[in-house]
Amino acid sequence: MNAQTTRALDGSRIRPNNPTIRGIGREENSARTITGRNGVYTKSRTPPKRDAPMLRVLIFLATSAAIVWLSRRSLAHPRSHGFYRFFAFELLTALVLLNAPFWFTKPLSVPQLVSWSFGAASIALAVEGFRLLRVIGRPSSVAGSTTDLGFEKTTKLVTVGAYRFIRHPLYSSLLALIWCAFLKRPSATAGLVLAVCGTGFLVATSIREERENIVHFGPSYSAYMRQTWRFIPFLF
Q1: What's the pLDDT tens digit per position in 162-200?
Q2: DSSP code at position 141
Q3: Who is most buried in 30, 166, 224, 232, counting CB within 10 A?
């Protein structure tokens, strides 16, 4: 051990509080003062990680470009359900990127545990929803509206699996993902605004899609609506 370094009672290395060492402390941008038998010392801390906001902005722009391309037909028809879904996608993207630096902060805290639960539910609903639409719904390129995405052009009404209880498992998946992302940093006002607005656009999307489905499937869809919930079984 050299003359300029000693150890505190907790066993950590500390440096004497001389001008040279104080300069090093300023460069590290963080230090803690410790008083010992041999004088006053400073203990260096690890500098906080720097955020990369510009990278998140670039990711948002790239993702938005993909969403615009995916929704290009719906954006030309403001009365289509895809028009409202576009804004839900944009708000969800903004929320995920806003809270990205906090995604794994305190992973075992209560908000994080609830967030992980929502994330798991989101994945399960997405997998189940897409599977049932493909296997039972039997999409066709000639079915549905011109603004529908390929998997939405179903030729048969799906009423089994998750669709037995809720009419929109895929939108429920997005809803769970929105609140999963929000709970990564629940104290942020901007995150709350994005989550509430995203939820509102998902509700508007589902209402508009239900009107389209009544036209497409007829009375059978109206009867199906009376037997199911929109997003959450037995609640909503």
Answers
A1: 999 999 999 999 999 999 999 999 999 999 999 999 999
A2: T
A3: 166
What digits encode the pLDDT tens for the residues 58-87? Answer: 999 999 999 999 999 999 999 999 999 999
Query: What pTM did the predictor assign?
Result: 0.76
**Coil, strand, or helix at residue 115?**
helix
Q: What distance, in Å, lies between the first and last C-alpha atoms of the chain?
A: 67
C-alpha pair distances (Å), 120 with each of 96, 113, 169: 16, 11, 14
Q: Which of 96, 117, 116 is nearest to 107 (CA)?
A: 116
CA distance 96 to 193: 13
53-227 is classed CATH 1.20.120: yes
Identify the bridge partners of residue 41 per DSSP, sorted by sequence position: 16, 34
Q: What confidence score (pLDDT) does residue 41 get?
A: 46
What 8-state DSSP symbol labels residue 5?
A: -
Beta carbons of 42 and 14 less than 8 angstroms apart: yes
Question: Which phi and psi (to 5°) does residue 47 adopt?
Answer: -60, 145
Where do the domains of the chain lie?
Answer: 6-44, 53-227
Largest CA distance in the chain: 88
Distance (Å, whole) CA 97 – CA 64: 12
